[in-house]
Amino acid sequence: MGIWERDKNRGIELTGKTVGIIGFGNTGEAFSRLLGAFNVTLLAYDKYRYDFGGRYIKEASFEQVCRYADVISFHLPLTDETRYMANEAFFDRLRNQPYILNTSRGEIIHTPALIDALATKKIRGAALDVLENERLSAYTPAEKEQLDFLSGHPNVLVTPHIAGYSHESYRKMAEILIHKLKL
């Protein structure tokens, strides 16, 4: 407190960077619209959706996202196919030392592989709104150690599963459920 360290806290701009979106459903597409104003190259990969590229979105393969992205954001449901998609092999594919964002499901990223990627500088940092285990009271000693590492890392941001969780979104979720019940 009371220390003014400008250079140590200098940021990196998104403008001119390549952002990879893995999973181009509702949230991936909404995220792309938010990024449209930042003058970034957007690469989007979705195994089950095609022909969605357009004015500022380029459809890409998984490998292209890994090769070219400066930021990779996950927007996937948790399935047997997506569980631990970001594993050791995924982090080994990365070429631009990207930042990793996960606001989808915690088990998309294998935490030990993420920690290794941070330690070996395969990635610059991570923003995690979801964790493999979000019941902190049920943590094993190993999970507690992993969370301590991530929380203490200067290039990691951990939030309590709040992305998109606003007073307005809570009401919208209820309205959608009511609409579905009426069908």
List the helices and strands in order.
Answer: EHEEHEHEHEHEH
Question: What is the highest CATH level, the class?
Answer: Alpha Beta
| Overall 3D form | globular
Counted up, domains total: 1
State the helicity in percent bands. Answer: 25-40%
Over all CA atoms, what is the radius of gyration?
A: 17 Å
Q: Mean pLDDT, rounded to whole units?
A: 93
Counting helices, strands and paired strands, the structural category is alpha/beta
The biggest beta sheet reads: 7 strands, parallel
Strand ordering within the main sheet: 3-2-1-4-5-6-7
CATH fold title: Rossmann fold
The CATH superfamily label reads NAD(P)-binding Rossmann-like Domain
Amount of beta strand? 15-25%
The low-confidence runs, each spanning 5 or more residues with pLDDT under 50, are: none
N- and C-termini, Cα separation: 56 Å
Provide a descriptive summary of the structure in words.
Helices cover 33% and strands 15% of the residues. A 7-stranded parallel β-sheet has the order 3-2-1-4-5-6-7, sandwiched between helices. By secondary structure, the protein is α/β, with parallel strands linked by helices. The model has no long low-confidence stretch (mean pLDDT 93). It has one domain (7-182): Rossmann fold. β5, α4 and β6 form a beta-alpha-beta unit. The chain is built from 6 helices and 7 strands. The protein has helices spanning 26-35, 62-68, 88-93, 111-119, 141-152, 167-182; strands spanning 18-22, 41-45, 57-59, 71-74, 99-102, 125-128, 156-158.
